[in-house]
Every structure is written in C-alpha cells, then in structure tokens.
Amino acid sequence: MKTTWRSASLAASAVAVLALTTACGSESGTSSSQNVGATAPAGGIAGVGVGTGVGSGVGSTASAGAAGGTDAQGAGELAIAANGNLGKILTDGTGKTLYRFDADTAEPPKSNCDGDCATAWPPVSADDISAGDGIDKSLLGEVTRTDGTKQLTVAGWPAYYYAKDAKAGDTTGQGVGNKWFALTPEGKKAKASGSSSESGTELAGLSVRKDANLGEIVVDKNGMTVYRFLKDKAWPEPVSNCNGACLEKWPAVAPVAFNETEGIQEKGYMNFTRSDGTKQQTINCSPIYTFSGDKSPGDINGQGVGGTWYAVAPNGKLVGAPAQ
User: Fold this and answer.
1) Cα–Cα distance, 147 to 41 (Å, whole number)
2) Cβ-count burial of 256 within 10 angstroms (0-12 exposed, 13-18 middle, 19+ buried)?
3) φ, ψ dihedrals at 256, nearest 5°
4) What is the rounded distance in angstroms from the CA atom of residue 89 to the CA atom of residue 98?
5) What would the pLDDT profile of 306-317 be if each residue is shown by its tens digit?
6) CA dihedral 214, 260, 138, 6 (to 10 degrees)
7) Which of 200, 246, 266, 294 is deepest in the core (most CB within 10 A)?
8) What does the DSSP 8-state code read for residue 40?
9) Regarding beta strands 77-83 and 130-131, do their DSSP bridges make them parallel or antiparallel, or are they unpaired?
C-alpha cells in the first residue's frame, strides 16, 4: 500500500460494553457489544454473509482479491462511478463495485467476514491502492485480517467485492441480506433513490412501525420487518435453531445497543453467541431475524411462512401466530 494514504494509526481501542438490564434464566451479564481491535484478532468471529451462508471459522478461503475469488491483487486506482439508482459509488480501477458489511466495525476497523463469507465477498487487498479524482486519500486505510492479509478500509470500513458482480458497473450485491451495501466515496452506505435515509427519516437501529394488517411490529434501521422463529428457544437462555440454508433466507439481526432503539421493550433485551460464534440480537430473549424475501421497507413477505415465522411485537411477542 502506498504510504501517502496509509492510515496513521490502527491501534486497538477498547469499546464500551453495554450491560444488560435483564438476562434470561440463570445467565446474566451477557454483553450487547464486543471489544474489537484495529487488527482482527486470531479466532475472530465469522460473518453472516446472507445469500452465501454463514462465514465459518477464521482464515478466509478467498483472501483479499478480485471478485470471483481469483488470486489476491490490488484494486489499483480507486474511482467514483455515477450509478443511476445509487448515486456516487466507489469502484476499483476496473470499474468493479466496492461494498461494506454492516456486521463489521469502523472504529476500530474490523472485518467479520471470513470463511464462506469471504469466498462470496472477497476482501479488497490494501496493496497498491491509490486515490483517483475526487477521492479523499486520508479516508483510505487498511486492517489486518485473521489470515494475516491486509484489507482496504474506507473511512474505517473494510471493503469487499461481490463474487456475483460479473462486470464493471454491476451492483448486484446492493442490499443483500439488508447487510451489504455499495460504498460511497465517503465510506457511507449507498442508498437507492427514495430510501428512508434520503427522505430525511433515518430510523433507529431497531424501532416500531404501524402496519395496516399486523399492527405495531419491529423493524430494523433500514425499515425491514423483523421476525421470530417458532423453533427457537428463549428460556432459560436464547438458542437459535436457524442455521445453514435457513440463515441464508433469514439473516440473524446483529447486536444493536439498546440506546439505539425506539419503542422496544428493555426487559430481556440482550444478545447471545450463536453456535457459529457470531452474535445475534434478541427481544425479550427471543432471537430475531430479517427475511431475504422482503425487498423493500414495509414488506411482510415472511409473515406466517411455513407456519413458523412471524413478525415481532415491541415486547418480543409473535404477531399473528396461532395460540401456543
């Protein structure tokens, strides 16, 4: 990486741990956020790459490289592309779109996409990068991944390709699982025209929406409906029984600090560690998810699917489910 834009400091800093108000069963004190450093520690958690499965284990099988999982190579001179739907987005020197992942962190930088996740979302190598016209080189940096490779960061956010983008200008990774978004030149998430953020109504991390059919239901920061799975367990501690292909269709909601919610019951609001090592949010101790079949804010296509998936009320109860 060229030293002209290398990040001046990637020193690890402690992240404040938000204590739970109420824990489930005999388990108490579960953290609602995890401490992370500027360099991804060995044994880092795997990322949930919706549409690709859950990242399994440390050490990416597709180290930082070009889309499609080819040998690692630098992105060259970064450029700004004008997309008719997303506005200005960041691309590599060949025009391939760069993305960011909601499960990652920017302060300090840390990638939570390893294993299968990194195969579908190849990290962008930090080597031989330069800033093209209109790009603030001070926003470009790097983070060391679990496999020791250096990944490009933009405003602290690790940058990725999407393996299903076949050619320059493709943005098929936009909005996948409501967790993956094209990068703007400032490192922010690209938003489609008419999205909530562009209309000046940015939502809290989790909030409540009044649905004409279901009443008050929980939505995520993108306005997407939140669901529960009848086969999960809440007591004496949360257990998710949605894994593998299930998790591809029903992405687990990553931890959201309670002070970033609106209208959500505080009792039992906690996160837990899934069997794959990732963290998942709960409401009233019940694991919560979004649905890949919901394409726009306000969609409730997941309601009642298989007789096991239902929207969530602000107190964590199932909405519209048969009496249990």
Assistant:
1) 10
2) buried
3) -130, 125
4) 8
5) 999 999 999 999
6) -100
7) 294
8) P
9) parallel
Parallel, antiparallel or unpaired: strands 105-106 and 99-101: unpaired
Q: Which residue intervals of the chain are DSSP H helices?
A: 116-120, 245-249
Instruction: Say how many residues make up the chain.
Output: 324
Calpha distance 26→248 (Å, rounded): 31
| Token pair 């060949």 in the structure block, residue | 94
What is the three-state SS of 263-321? Answer: CCCCCCCCEEECCCCCEEEEECCEECECCCCCCCCCCCCCCCHHHCEEEECCCCCECCC
User: Which of 142, 42, 132, 57 lies closest to 92, judged by CA?
Assistant: 132
Q: What is the pLDDT of residues 49-108, one digit of tens each?
A: 333 333 323 233 333 333 333 334 468 999 999 988 888 999 999 999 999 999 999 999
Tens of pLDDT along 187-201?
999 876 544 443 344
Residue 231: name the closest of 315, 305, 145 by CA.
305
